Amino acid sequence: MDWKLKDIRKETEHPYLNFYTVTYEVNKNGKIYNYSYFMASRHEPGKLVCETNDTSVPDGVLMPLYYIDPKTKEISLLITKQFRPPLNKYVHSFPAGLVDPNESIETTAHREAMEEAGVTIDDLELLCPPSPTSSGLSDETNAIVIARVTGFADKHLEDFEDINAKFIPLKDIEEYMDNHFFAMQIRLVIKYLLLKFKGQY
Q: 138: which strand partners?
């Protein structure tokens, strides 16, 4: 099939996330159809990914952060617990945040690590470039950056950010996942980190 974007209609006016109807002209075996699809986006008209095809800058950055105890050499992961209104429950995850205008992935990671968890970081590694998170629902993309915690300070949460963070030793993380509610991609990244640090915990 051949898809051609024909129309975009913004259905809502909210400051952070909006609902759109996008209409495509679809050539299916020589027959032309109009097909409407419904999606959410953080972007304004003219900057939707379906218009620009630009996924070079992510909407947000997810940060698996690890800490190596200088005395015991034990490796721990920084796990957050945040209330998520769409689910009406707390979700366990990693620190994460939105990319500000003209901000690099690395700058976002440093800023959000400090704001959400009160930590400084180093040894940044781009695990995943900007990639779709839920392509059937939204044009949102996120990048994933692994980093090592190097210091501690006060965190700076927004008024209604309900986020707590604690370190879980890698040797205990699988049992911890079994007993807490984690996002799917977080579980997969933790599996990767267990392989990355295999033999060190």
A: 40
Q: Distance of CA 125 to CAs 76, 78, 122, 129, Å?
A: 17, 16, 9, 11
- Of 19, 36, 52, at which residue does a domain stop? 52
Half-sphere CA count of 103, side-chain side, radius 13 A: 17
Count how many Cα atoms sit within 13 Å of the Cα of residue 152 in the half-sphere of its side chain. Answer: 6
Tens of pLDDT along 11-53? Answer: 999 999 999 999 999 999 999 999 999 999 999 999 999 999 9
Say whether 86 sits in a helix, a strand or coil. Answer: coil
The C-alpha atoms of residue 165 and residue 186 are separated, in whole angstroms, by 15
| Predicted TM-score of the model (pTM) | 0.91
Q: Which domain holds residue 190?
A: 60-196
What are phi and psi for residue 106, nearest 5 degrees? -65, -40
- According to DSSP, the β-strands at 65-68 and 75-84 are antiparallel
For residues 131 and 154, the answer to whether their CB atoms sit within 8 Å is: no
For 138, residues 6+ apart whose C-beta sits below 8 A from its C-beta are 39, 40, 41
Say how far apart CA 47 and CA 61 lie, in whole Å: 19
Domain match, 102 and 10 both = no
Using alpha carbons, select from 91, 83, 80 the residue that is nearest to residue 116. Answer: 80
Looking at the fold, whether 181 and 84 belong to one and the same domain comes out as yes
| The three-state (H, E, C) secondary structure of 107-127, written as one string | HHHHHHHHHHHCEEEEEEEEE
